[in-house]
Amino acid sequence: MKVVICGAGRVGFGIASRLASENNDVTVVDTSPSLIRKITTDLDVKGLVGHGSDPVILKQAGVENADMIIAVTHTDEVNMIACQVAHSLFSVPTKVARVRAQNYLLKEYSDLYSSDNMPIDIIISPEIEIAQSILRRLKTPGAFDVVSFGRGKVTMLGIKIYEDCPIIDTPIKQIPDLFPGLHAAVVGVKRDGLIFAPLPDDPLIVGDDAYFITKSEHSERLLEIAGSRDNLARQIVIVGAGNIGAYVAKELESISNVRVRLIESDAMQAEIAAETLKRTVILNGDAMDSEIQEEAGVANSELVICLTNDDKTNILCAVLAKKIGAKQTISLINELSMRDLQVELGISMVVDPRATTISSILRHVRQGKILDVYSLEQGQAEIMEGEVLDTSSLCGKSISESNLVDGISIGAIIHDDKVIYPTADTIIKSGDHVVLLAEKIAMKEIEQLFRVSSDYF
Length: 457
Hints:
The protein has 457 residues and is an alpha/beta fold. It folds into 4 domains: 2-124, Rossmann fold (3-Layer(aba) Sandwich), CATH 3.40.50; 140-225, Alpha-Beta Plaits (2-Layer Sandwich), CATH 3.30.70; 235-326, NAD(P)-binding Rossmann-like Domain (Rossmann fold, 3-Layer(aba) Sandwich), CATH 3.40.50; 366-456, 2-Layer Sandwich (Alpha-Beta Plaits), CATH 3.30.70.1450. The chain has 15 helices and 24 strands. The longest helix has 14 residues, at 126-139. It is globular and about 65 Å long.
């Protein structure tokens, strides 16, 4: 697949890295010579210095023959115009744009992106994606990561394995026998910094991050069994009233018995938030000032969420909040090196905005009948949902007969809207949706399993 990426920042670099590692033909355009120099040095991609919406630059980048353009510069307008140019002048089949400003995303203006106006096939809003990721975790206390698949029927839960977990040292194939009726398929384990698809006889050990696939209605029971279930936070303090902080606060206002206080250092931004938020108490001040945090009630809070656009502020605010008395903290952190400080500094959870955005884009980059994708640990593995076609090598075979390569672990099969726990004897049928984890080395195999061949048409 040939892809042109406009923007060589964190997200553009991440997308280019993922696609190049899978032998796609990638060209990256950016106005910064230093960013282009870095990305072409570090990755097997072509680079071009120039404006992403300039038709001459796009033609030089090979957009005429591209299957997709992904516009992720820091400027919404450049991203949108790049897609318009790619469509109108070069007939690029798939156009993806990152759009941050919320006014562009209002429902009354949705026709803006139609084929007759500004034809953008996929709009990615990082702020909304990140906010929704945080809200999923808040609504499932005890899990460090939560993602739904199969139109909400199936949930992936990331659960930390502690010493009191009753399934430690138990082969994962025995878990369903120990807890009858529970759908709890361990599809991935992060150990010593690496994620792998476990074998049936592999056990979980203390310190593992385990990725479970379960029926959504079994989530609470699974968390209770794993010893990770916690109460929903009721006293919450948010630091930062930007797009993400304001969105999270607004959504939390709809949950009864949840009290939210928001700290914002910029007076104008605080006023804007005050106009849209009805039940949230807003304080204008520096969250790195202990007096402001105490005034916001951090000492009695169950959760402090740090969502400014500065990593250092988010880290230091979380550390101060823990010192004052906050039970748990969440920090938005962009830099990979800074995320390594999470454990040492006692930050309960880290949100990676780049990974969230990349996951959103990968849903549309993956070929074949792959319906949804969620990236784990900077692309070490992906959780995905795919539809099985008549032409797939999976169709009509049991899982044991499918001879799946190492690095693939099936967590659930959705057949006629019913979620089935996968066993070696489970027969996969045409039309089934399969939810699985695939390590990076198995990505090409996955695309083959769900590819649309000429026989399909």
